[in-house]
Amino acid sequence: MFTAFWDILTIDNLIYLFKGAMVSLSMAALSLFIGLIFGILGASAKISKNRLLRILGNIYVEVIRGTPMLLQIMLIFNVVPIIVTQITGEVFRMNYFLIGVVAMSINSGAYTTELIRSGINGIDKGQWEACETLGLSRWQTMRLVILPQAFKRIVPPLISEFITLIKDSSLVSIIGLVELLNSAKVLGNQYYEFMSPYCLAGVYYLVMTLTISYIAKKIERKLAVSD
Amino acid sequence: MIKIENIVKQFNNLKAVNDVSLEIKKGEIVCLIGPSGSGKSTVLRCINGLEKPESGHIYVNDQLLDEKDSENYKKLRGLMGFVFQHFNLFPNMTVLENLTLAPIQVMKKSKEEAEQIACQYLERVGLLDKKNEYPNKLSGGQKQRVAIARSLCMSPEIMLFDEPTSALDPEMVIEVLEVMQELANEGMTMVVVTHEMGFARTVANRVIFLEDGKIVEENNAEEFFKHPKTQRAQDFLNKVMH
Ligand SMILES: Nc1ncnc2c1ncn2[C@@H]1O[C@H](COP(=O)(O)OP(=O)(O)OP(=O)(O)O)[C@@H](O)[C@H]1O
Ligand SMILES: [Mg+2]
């Protein structure tokens, strides 16, 4: 077994895993970003005065948070090609990365919706009232007074969400995307030995997640100082 | 200038304001007093639309305050400034930005003009040197003076104060009351919810005593403090004055 480990530990294999890690990382980063947009829309819906929007926002959050991400990935894996074919009229060339990003963005958006909503709700009601008495519209209040204050509360959990996404991106391996976990599996198949490549993949995941939480701590400290 | 007719405001099953009517004339200074929970804040908040009464009417300059007529509603609310017990300054903005936000965004003033006006008001409340500070660097009394200046920047014709000194340390109460006294001297129409009986006595033209959401007694300040007519007002004054 230990000989196998040294066999596998070659520069080429490390680079191969690194490429897989970059797929995972970029998928997580893109999904975080798109999920943030969904989150802003979702949170706006959930706190809007319009009842229908509030209901839609609730359904989005509850359905996504109440079902397994794996199921969502499988579902989108089956649904996206149909939709794309409907729209373009051409047969959809399977793009696993794209499907992964779509699924993870929708998933992340639900969690981000709640992050943003609770960040906004955490701002003292008096801030809204002061704006109201000064004649600012709801949207002006949101944009100029509430969001800048809520931002500080939202950033730290958003970074945790990024870490979660990096780990959860491994779920997209189920549809065949060669991200970090699948890269390890490919190596395992090649050498008939799985423990070493999986351990290496674990190290790669750890490097990514620990780096981000280190940066997160620094950012948090900075935000706390300006309070 | 302000006329309230039979307003009722209910929270759950509690009638916080129960059929209150009153009138405030231009230039008048009216103090609302009464025990905790008597509905003083709620009356004040109904006047400028922060709370929506279940029934009754509010007139500002003889015009009905009606949310459905949104243009006029905005205009009428714009005539009233509101000062909160807890200041509600924007912590993410400097003092000057706190003052210029609404003039720039709502009145569409240029930044320069808004800042010039803001500086005039800061000068008047004695805080021009703090214009670039953030609110968390100010004392309670300074915060409240900034909050008053912020309201004044919108050139209100009526100022509503909800216990502006209740959250302050005793030594800071006076600096805020002085600013209010000055406003009163300049002829501002003011409605003040307060526990400062000294202020009510010396500055107010009229005192309205509320209890359980109802007006129990209403009189000019002099008379009210010297000869309260109702037993409840007498009891209340005995409690707070001694
Ligand atoms: N938003 C609210 N929701 C539920 N009940 C409320 C709300 N605001 C006020 N009340 C209740 O209405 C009653 C009147 O409240 P209000 O704040 O007007 O009294 P107040 O005279 O201003 O008292 P205080 O001197 O303590 O400020 C109180 O019993 C209070 O608990
Ligand atoms: Mg009150």
Provide an overview of this structure.
The complex is a heterodimer of chains A (227) and B (242). Chain A is mainly α and 227 residues long. Chain A has helices at residues 2-8, 11-46, 51-65, 69-88, 96-121, 125-134, 138-168, 180-191, 195-225. In chain A, helix 2 crosses helix 5 and helix 4 (69-88) crosses helix 5 (96-121). The model of chain A has no long low-confidence stretch (mean pLDDT 92). Chain B is an alpha/beta fold. Chain B has nine helices and ten strands. Chain B has helices spanning 40-47, 70-78, 95-105, 111-124, 140-152, 170-185, 197-203, 221-226, 231-241; strands at 2-11, 14-24, 29-33, 55-60, 63-64, 80-83, 158-162, 189-193, 206-211, 214-220. In chain B, strand 7 (158-162), helix 6 and strand 8 (189-193) form a beta-alpha-beta unit. In chain B, helix 3 packs across helix 4 (111-124). The model of chain B has no long low-confidence stretch (mean pLDDT 93). The interface between A and B is medium-sized, with 17 and 24 residues. The structure holds adenosine-5'-triphosphate and magnesium ion. The site of adenosine-5'-triphosphate (ATP) has 11 residues of chain B, from strand 2 and helix 1.
